[in-house]
Amino acid sequence: MRNGPKNTSNICELLKQVTGSIWVAVKFDRGKSSNVMKPLRFCEAIYKTRQKNIILSCSTVCCDGARRCFGWLKNRDGKLALKLTEKAGIDPSIASKLLSSVPVLNNQFSAISLSRDDNADVFITYTSPESAMQIVRLWQKVTGQNLNLEISGIMSVCGNTVVRSYINQEISLSLGCPDSREYGGIKADQLVIGIPNKLANLLFKGMNKL
Questions:
Q1: Angle formed by the axes of helices 77-88 and 92-100, to 10°?
Q2: What are the pLDDT digits (tens) for 22-49?
Q3: Domain boundaries, the chain
């Protein structure tokens, strides 16, 4: 842990003390309008939230994979699997199987708010393997358990981090995917961590006790 936690009530700042990286609060909303003029990839929006808060809607997320994971694009898995086959050179049957394993939101949300505050369903960061180790060690100290993870290299930020953390209420980790590394600001020496609000608060309380 980086010099021990300082007193703070903001979970994004508390997690930053542990990892040294910037955390973004992801909130699934209803009734909000997007505040971006140019469509973005979700992973790109996570990176841009370092400078300002962002609200996304279906029309302002330009990645079909992300739209599918957020429940905004239905009955397109066949075409998405074909794209995966073409881009990654994966056998079509394997592409379909991998795609079907990526979780999808069932709740009907009209917007996704990204900010640096505590109003979140999931907290997410792009960080170093060493910082991921710090999160795992903190998890072990607080719960007395090992952290079981499922790792994927497709739809890494949207589906296999944020949506997976939200649905399963578990910490998630991804190594990124080619698109998120190209457009989303994930560096070569970084990976992706997502923590649902409930578990982030559990770690927060555990840090204060420690």
A1: 120
A2: 999 999 999 888 999 899 999 999 999 9
A3: 11-209
Q: At what angle do helices 129-143 and 11-19 cross, to 10 degrees?
A: 110
pTM to 2 decimal places: 0.91
pLDDT at 207 exceeding the cut of 80: no
